[in-house]
Amino acid sequence: MTLTEKQLMEQILEKIKQWDNIIIHRHVSPDPDAIGSQVGLGELIKASFPEKTVKYAGEGSESLNFLHTYEPITISDYEDALVIVTDTANIARIDGEYYNEGADLIKIDHHPKDDSYGSIEWIRTSASSVSEMITDFWQTFKDELTLNNEGARLLYAGIVGDTGRFQYNNTTPQTMRIAADLLSFDFDHTVVLRKLYEMPPAVARLQGYTLEHTKVSPEGVGHLILSQEFLHSLGLEDEHTNAVVSTPGPISGVKCWGIFVEQPDGTYRCRLRSHGPIINTIAKEHNGGGHPLASGANAENLEEVQEILNKFRKVAVEWDQA
């Protein structure tokens, strides 16, 4: 029997009520929605059930420390614990090796379903973000759940991050209504926006380099390859390149694009975006996945990078002709 979303949400609430120890995971290389949904859910649980212990698994991100900083947890913390994973479609991308060591496991996600895991899987691909889903979870059970100011701040940051300040096509009327409800809480949303989009001088130089050196094919496919040597010359690491992944988007004629970042082992992390052509199917063919217009993949070498670009050119032409 297929359960309705309301029934899945009811089951999740019952699980949260059942367990006194709860550990929440999210994906590696976190973005604002990963941290916002993870810790925002934790704040919702703690405010609603103060007697419960909530911990967060994963490595932090220097640029997102203003959202949350992480403390280490051990396998012993998972004894008699409910584990919840937010914003993570693929098992391989779960941050924290002990996610499967708890007493029960729940998946909450908005990506197209890749890996199946957990006794409960609540997936809503129409949601702009998992932070939007967690806010809806709170609103659905307002009689039983309490959201505090810190939880609202985190969830708002997650929604803003995954919608690109409400400019992406995943922004719906429901997204705006939920964001408006979060703004009624006591936090400074202008500080959240400034912190999300401010950048150190070295990243600003990287952004200028990205605009200047992104190559655009006749089909409308943009690409930029960033070497380890170049990044280190700016004093930057791979995680800093996330700040410029959207930079080629406003270039006239660009339909889809990729930023390919060399890793220490010589492979490439592929940050892929699109204004229309569907690209997550291509990402899945290259050890990745994600949303139809925003995905990530991995390439063993420059030859595989070229394979991805060739596929991008094909879907760009097909999209143009549709």
From TrEMBL:
Q: Which superkingdom is the protein from?
A: Bacteria
Q: Where is the DDH domain positioned along the sequence?
A: 21-159
**UniProt domain DHHA1: residue ranges:** 235-316
Gene Ontology molecular function: nucleic acid binding
The record ties this protein, via Pfam families, to:
DHH, DHHA1
**Name of the featured protein:** Phosphoesterase RecJ domain-containing protein
Annotated source species: Dolosigranulum pigrum ATCC 51524
Recall the taxonomic lineage recorded for the source organism.
Answer: Bacteria, Bacillati, Bacillota, Bacilli, Lactobacillales
